Records
---
Amino acid sequence: MWPHYCRVALLLTCSWLTFDGLSHSASARPQALVCVEHVWCDIAQQIGGNALHTTVLITASGLDPHHLRPTPSLARTLSQADAVLLNGATYDDWALSLIPQNVHLFNMAQQEGNWRPGDDPHLFFDPKIVRHAAFNIAQWLITKDPDHATEIKGRLDQFTEQTQKILIRLDHLKAHFQGTTIAITEPAGERLLSYAGLTIVDRPWALAVMNENGISARDTASLEENITQHKIRFLLVNPTVMAPEVETIKTLANAHHIPTIELGENLPTGQSWQGWMNHTLDDIEHALNRTALTP
């Protein structure tokens, strides 16, 4: 059986051949795509190239999409798009009511169909979801601009290959560290950690931080014990979450020489999605290779 990424490329080729018989427009304008988060627009732009113009609604680093209040300006930008790409999963659902029916919608949570309340909403940390999104964007673009089908398909093939390399790295980590216990201050990155086979010891605590619905003393005590007794290999910290409880846990981890890795929700300036993922995996590998559990 062919690898999944090969089947994706073959499927897109078939779609491209279907579109090849359509009448072409030599002067097709770039399609306008609006994303709430920069990371999704980065992925789309890599696929679309000159056939796509992207606009990001959240441009300030550290701004949580959950807390964004829509403005008339944001509503106008959404209404003027050819397509809108949302993470969904309650992450940026406020934008749904602002999107006209004639605007094409990419909703990543609906695309996958298996997201449930309580699941990690940061879908851009899931390489398979990202790969599926890239394929759907390419298909849509080819229907709109068949003259550039070959270029779009070529960029998709390149992106798919790079995504597969990330999945291979995750499989390698899983083979060596499956079941290794770590902690997180908020679920950002949870999907990536799951692919690596790592076990999160404080998921209820991290979910309570994300949802701002009250952290139980029992969960806090359990996390503190895991840190002081060196039962975790590292602490993954979302730097955009500013809460006293998180600062206390970070201080405790530093006092007990538990490595901390920062992983936020915003694509770092100057990085692509795959560069961000690979840099994060570098940090995780380094932390796992230089720490050992105390008997």
---
Amino acid sequence: MPHKIIKLKSPSKINLALWIKEKRPDGYHEIETIFYENENLYDEIEIEFTESNSLSVEISFIQDKLNKLISKNENLAYKAALLFFEKLNVKGICRIKINKNIPLEAGLGGGSSNAAGVLKGLNQIFSYQLDESKLLILSETLGSDVPFFMYGGTCLGKGKGEHLIKLENKLDLEIEIKKLPEISVSTKWAYEQMDSRGIAAEHSLQIRNLVNAMKIKDYNLFSQNTFNDFETAVFSHHPQLIDLRKNFLNEGYTISGLCGSGAAVFGMRCRDKVTSPLYLI
């Protein structure tokens, strides 16, 4: 393998349900969530590999301002590449270029998706030497959302989000994402707000209803059960996002809510013809 280049898409995600439970002894929060892969909004990754007697990993964004904003050592995609080469114990020159379309600090999982994309891309270059279970183990060390992007599709996530069950989803969903450029939300800040809220809400029934609704293709049931525990805190701190959500509903989307911990907002409707009232998460 003297030289190889591959290109791949790195999709975003939204959380159809996001239940923030108690804080764990390790400092993380226990969550239960339904991840949904949004293939309509994605980054583009190019991975180039050349054999060499030493290891060199270079990573850059097409958007030069991001190269100044995100250091190499903070980039999950860079960490993923190092982890992969360490696991295989191989050397070479690896150059990774990312065309960033997924906004930062938006709750869309862009960094996690890039890390998963690099793992999958390098595994392809190296003729799939790591099976799915080994790749998943690597992904879990990089971040709580990275394992989901190894699976894709629609998944129920538990623990920190890394324990995943693939879900059947028969709904044909149309999704649009909007993010106000002046508003960003730190995931760390969002979780800190959860610590001061008192008793966590109970969402078991809503989760079950969503899983069933996707399986039996019941969009009305689906619409009535989407939720996100971060919304109260994030919307109260950034009321402009409430207007963004109202705009989606006025445009005919039947569901609108916060993406992950924010600050992006999604509008959603079913492409199939349905008679459904408007619901806010």
---
Amino acid sequence: MSAFPELIAFDMDGTLLRSDGSLSPRVRQAVREIKDQGCIIALSTGRPWRAVTETVNSLGVVDYCVCLNGASIHKADGKLLKLNAMTEEQTRASAQLARKLIPDVGLAADMADGRHIWDDHFTHDFPADFSMIPVRVPDVLSALDGPVLTWLLDCKDLAPMKAIEVMSSQMPDGTEVRPSGLETPEIVASGVSKGSGLGEIAVTNGIDASKAWVFGDGLNDIEMFLWAGHSVAMKNGHPDVLSIAGDIAPSHDEDGVAVVLEHLMAG
């Protein structure tokens, strides 16, 4: 592992951002200083593109964004590099399965064109700074008019991980259900993850995975932890993430990202 990685990717919620959704001046400065060392900087998040732009602008040094856990990949100026949408058959079959297995499930579609179409009874606990205006409809399946990147599932009284367990063995071919990082399970095309998204960026820039560092805290970060040459979990992270991390940083509310980057730059 080189002294300075060639690519560094940061999860946002629970990692780069504090509990109140703010980006601390110390973390901002550390990311800018590591960029000065020649690193490519990426955000790798479950958020859609429009909920990432404020942080991109605040940092001022981001090169790429892996959004919706790999379902869309963007340059920092918003230029779309790749979409990983489900087929129409996969979209409808997976949603119908969720409705069959999870009582009163609320569905939310992240559309390939950037729109969000939600069942009227879909509820969530997204971060307060999410900048999205969904279209709410009585039946989201009937309202679909284009490709879907991800389904988010509001499982009501069923715990998210239990819902994933119930659905996993019955998923339509070419789809998978997994934690989204937003307290809701999500359905995506098989193989789409933060790790696959970062892999696309690495190939584009001629960077080997062994020269990449990743920072994260949630179950949706596991694939990128397994992909990268070095992984850093936040102290506030999920136990499964902590167990596979190369290093553990102080929590996001203790500017853990900055602590690790400052140590790296100090040599």
---
Amino acid sequence: ELRKLLLREEVRSLNEAAVDAKEIPPERIWELARGLPMLSQWRLIVVDNASEISQRSWEKALDYLRRPAPTTCLVFRAQKSPPAGEVSELLREKGVAVEVRPRSEASALDWIEEAARGKGKRITRGASRLLLELVGTDESSLDGELEKLASFVGEGDLIEEHHVQEITAGVRMRTLFQLTDAIGEGRPSEALKIMDRLMDQGTSPLAAMGMLARQLRLLQAALLWRRGETHSSLGPDRISEFLREKLLRQSAQWSEERILKALRGLAWIDRKVKSGRLEARWLLDRWILQLGPEKAPPLP
């Protein structure tokens, strides 16, 4: 919405940049922010993983923060607030801090259907639910997948579940199932190789952690289904048949105790990474080894 508000479509590519603070030096962010717009009133610079910017780097940016470029909208996406002090005060004085919470499942399903209508398409409830299962509630990710699906159905006006299976449930989902299979079957060496592939597909370590946690909770629900019980929020009737069959097959390799251990490990990694103390990928590799037959020292 911010992009549409600030930039006309024909000049968007000239005035928009998305960068990752984990991948570029912080000085480059301020250079981009000082650039002048081309054939537009505004430039839009989006910085992902802004929590990775060190306090020292923020302090070097004080000159810019005191006098930000009047034609640049600079957006920082972060898991935590910047260090307290002048930097934090300037960001709040010159800008706006917005806390973004994940949508509820019901709200996300409604959003998917509304977004599909905005692209001139209808989407079945089953397709919406499967898309949500595969992608999560992040609107940017969902919108990207809906763009692909709208292109895939072409002149047809209806997106159905089999379209989502074919387009969205592709390489990344197969890789995720392969990863949890390898961990569940006690093949840590293979699991580490699959994790490499997941990273090569453009998945960040933090995103991989979220995907794995969600997969483990689904497996937890599948264990209950196998016993004829129903999870409080994930009954088998709320999961697509396509995904339900895969989960029931895979859950045979996992016990409730092992799933809880894995989830506790991921929660511990998340705390360590967000505190800036340890590197996510290294910890994920240790987590995989800990769950395999060749036990590494416990994480917590």
